[in-house]
Each structure stands twice: as C-alpha cells, then as structure tokens.
Amino acid sequence: MFAYIVRRLFAVIVMLLVVTLVTFGIFFAIPKLTGSDPAALYVGKQADPATIEGIRQKLGLGDPILVQFWHFVSGIFAGRDYTGGGTSDHCPAPCFGYSFRTEQAVWPVLTDRLPVTLSLAGGACVIWLLAGVSAGVVSALKRGTKIDRAAMVTALAGVSLPIYFTALLALALFNNQLGWTKAEYTPFGDDPGAWFSGLILPWITLAFLYAAMYARLTRATMLEVLGEDYIRTARAKGLTERVVIGKHAMRSTMTPVLTILGMDLGALVGGAILTETAFSLPGLGQAAVTAISNRDLPLILGVVLIAATAVVVANLVVDLLYAVIDPRVRLS
C-alpha cells in the first residue's frame, strides 16, 4: 500500500507541474494570438508608452518565457518581489500575480471566493451521492416495477433539463412565490443556520443534475453486479439479502461511482459556473466568468490552476479509496 501511495503522489506532482506549464504557456500565448500586450492590459488603454514599459519591467513581462515561468512557480512557494518602472512591491507566498483590472493580488481574491465554491460543491455532493446512489440501488432491486420506472423518468428529467432552467424555476417557485428560502451565502463561522438555509436551494438544484446521472450509473452497475457468479454463490450460502447487497454487491458497485465522483467534485471546486451565476453566489465560477469578460489573465490563470489542482487531488483521493475497496489495484 505504501508503494502504491508513493507512485500516486509522484504522478500528482508531475501532473501539477505539467498543468502549470501548459496553463502558463497559454497565459502568454493569448496576447500574441490576439495581438494585445499584457502590460497594456494591466495599465489600461489610456496609458502612455512609458507607463506600459515600466509595468512590463516591474512584472518581468520582457524576460524570456522560461525565466518568467521560473519566477511564477517560485513565487507560489516563496513569494515574489516586483521592482521596475520606479515602483516596487512584494507579493507574499502564494503569489499568483496581480489582477489586471483591480491591481489586487490574485491569491486573496481567490481565497475570498473559495469558501463559497467549496460550500456549494460539498453540500451538493452529499445530497447527490445519498439521493443518486440510493435511487439507483432501489431501482435495480425493483427492476421493471413502477418504482424503477418512476426513478428512471425522474433521472432522465434531471439529466435533460439545463441547470440554468432548473435554477431559475427553483428561484421563481421557492424564493419568489413561496418565500421559503433565500439563496445567498453567509460564512459558516458567522451563522451556521443562515449558511445552511442560504445554500439549500443551490445545493438541491446542482444535486438534481448529478443525482440523476449517479442514479442511472448505479442502477446499470448494480444490475451487472447482481448477475455475477459470486453474488449467486453468496445467496446459495444462505446469506441474508442485506448482507449480499450491502457487503458484496455495493462494494463492486461503488468503484465506478467513486471514479466519476473524483472528476465531478474536482471540477466543481473550480467553480459551478452556471449555478453560481444563476443564484448570484460570489464563487470561483463567477470570478472566472468576470475575468474572462475583462481579459484579466492573472485571475484566469489562478482559477485554472486551482481547478486543475482540485481535480488532480480529488482523483488521488479516489485512487486511494479505490485501493481500499478493491485491493487488486494495489498491485497495478
């Protein structure tokens, strides 16, 4: 198991370096493709050439790409000093640079918005796992019954309906019409009750889409597992149906669920863009949309790196859980 963990950790480090290099390359390829200058984007269209040149020197935009990449990577761990153009500044670690629009350090902007996205993704994940997996298992055990058909019709609706439609429908019904809850973010430390009540509607809206997909996946996997020889053997030994399903069938059923859970949850940490936009939640997804609209390249780079790191780390956790569920993968 230790060797398996070491191999996976090494793969994570290599993957993060590759993602950082590719993302940083895209960051500097965009201005060339669009014919724009990052220094000019930083100071605005009305700046004079001397100001633009000073910013270029301060941010090191005139250095070779590899030198800039080294400064960027080292700045994440050790911070970075910006000097040039008659001004100087120190960006403490982790340093992702400064926003082109607000001239604020990128990392504090991301950390202010990250709790919103983590709260949204975490709460929705709990709901869709409980609802989706439970519905899939019950549907598989009740195959061909009205319960099975009702669950699959609901799942089909969840997969088919766009999330911005269900979000607006939920807002119109539960918020505007009935007034049951208000979608807003309150820090958990300030008021746990307000935090929960303000996110329950976005949670359910986001979970409805994913629960539908997980229900269909769980049902298909469970039906396949129930036809395996070892399930028939377990039943022939006289084991109760609860033990057969809970101990034997569920263990095999959960492996593909965990696999896609890592990708889904990691991607959501990068920002549930449609959900955050529909409910006006100030998360990373909304920050990414604003940054793209404003061509704020440092902020875009920061969001992309956080999202990529979340996906890689989530998949590492899934790999470790996968090894616990199925010991055979430790030998691979």
What descriptive keywords fit this protein?
332 residues, mainly alpha, two-stranded antiparallel ribbon, 2 strands, globular
Description:
With 332 residues, this protein is mainly α. The protein contains 13 helices and 2 strands. Strands 1-2 form a two-stranded antiparallel ribbon. Strand 1 and strand 2 (87-91) form a beta hairpin. The radius of gyration is 24 Å and the shape is globular. The protein starts with a helix and ends in a 7-residue tail after the last helix. The mean pLDDT is 82.
Topology (elements, then pairings):
Elements: H1 2-34, H2 38-43, H3 49-59, H4 65-78, E1 80-84, E2 87-91, H5 106-141, H6 146-160, H7 163-177, H8 192-226, H9 229-236, H10 241-269, H11 273-278, H12 284-294, H13 297-325
Antiparallel strand pairs: 1-2
Helix pairs in contact: 1-13, 5-6, 5-8, 5-10, 5-13, 6-8, 7-8, 8-10, 9-10, 10-13, 12-13
Kindly summarize this structure in a few lines.
This protein is mainly alpha-helical and 332 residues long. It has helices spanning 2-34, 38-43, 49-59, 65-78, 106-141, 146-160, 163-177, 192-226, 229-236, 241-269, 273-278, 284-294, 297-325, and strands at residues 80-84, 87-91.
Overall pLDDT: 82
From the helix content, strand content and strand pairing, which structural class follows? Answer: mainly alpha
How much β-strand is present in the residues?
under 5%
Specify Rg, calculated over alpha carbons: 24 Å
Tell me the number of helical segments per DSSP (H or I, 4 or more residues long): 13
Strand order of the largest sheet: 1-2
- The proportion of residues forming helix, as a percent range, comes to over 70%
Shape: globular
N to C succession of SSEs: HHHHEEHHHHHHHHH
Q: Count of DSSP E strands? A: 2
The largest pleated sheet is described as:
2 strands, antiparallel
What are the segments in which pLDDT stays under 50 over at least 5 consecutive residues? Answer: none
Span of the ends, CA to CA: 11 Å
